[in-house]
Amino acid sequence: MTADIIDGKAVAADLRARIAASVAAFEAKTKETPGLAVVLVGDDPASQVYVRNKGKATEKAGMRSIEHRLPASASQEEVIALVRALSADHSVDGILVQLPLPAGIDANRVINEIDPAKDVDGLTELSAGRLLLGKEGLVPCTPQGCVILAKSVRPRLEGAHAVILGRSILVGKPLSLLFLAENCTVTMAHSRTKDLADVCRSADILCAAAGRPALVKGDWVKGGAIVIDVGINRIGEGAASKIVGDVDFEAAKIRAGAITPVPGGVGPMTIACLLRNTLVAAARRRGLADPEV
Ligand code: NAD
Prior knowledge:
The chain has ten helices and eleven strands. The strands form three sheets. It has a six-stranded parallel beta sheet with strand order 1-11-8-7-5-6. A three-stranded parallel beta sheet has the order 3-2-4, sandwiched between helices. It is 41% helix and 16% strand. It starts with a strand and ends in an 8-residue tail after the last helix. The chain binds nicotinamide-adenine-dinucleotide. The site of nicotinamide-adenine-dinucleotide (NAD) has 24 residues, from helix 10.
């Protein structure tokens, strides 16, 4: 028996279509168009591609994309001044500061200048605290995407044992809180975890976010488990290089019940959830109910 392949591209496309419809309804009601501001500092080629893709996806969903580029030589004060201006600008609903920032700029300080009501990456300390406390806030995009993918194959996660491999602020920690909010029993595993294979084998839902190619072997997966592979790792050189996840996909899919591929799994969900957060932020800022997307 082989696992169902969870098609992240299809789930994300479906979510984006629902967001676009909801944006149209929002416009009809408010006569305004939600706007996402992206701040790019410096000329890191990968960041430029990410920002371009986010801009295209934002416009495709019917929202306004506002790009602000600052040179790599920009000072921390200049970046903070821009983020403060965007936070104060009524026409901006979401603010995203593309990371990493150039050396010498304290990303933490810059991020925490974002108005939490516009924190569509969910990275401010206030957003993180609200997630921890189970209060309404904006939730980081990649973890949000992982939960949507898990629920696409198992709508009720209550009682499932979710094992999260990785404890980063960006992925592992918020993801563990989201599964907890779904009433899962959550285990967080990391680089110091003992008997990692056994811990993984106890998972009904196994999420790998370690950034280590093929860390999760086929026999680490419990029969029938849902495997969500967050890892994005480039292996090989030049034309022969390719992107792989943290899971040995071919071996794991023989045991798993459902599994996300890399690429085409969690990746496409991240941008879709960013659009979702922008729309949600736009609605909440105007005192409207959360759109059902
Ligand atoms: P990170 O480096 O900040 O954190 C990695 C975590 O994995 C750490 O907590 C560490 O303890 C743990 N870890 C490392 N080696 C391990 C090992 N051998 N055994 C067990 N645990 C181990 O990385 P991150 O930002 O959380 O990202 C993780 C992966 O997810 C990366 O490959 C990254 O590219 C990818 N990612 C993908 C998306 C997406 O949109 N799909 C978004 C963000 C990150």
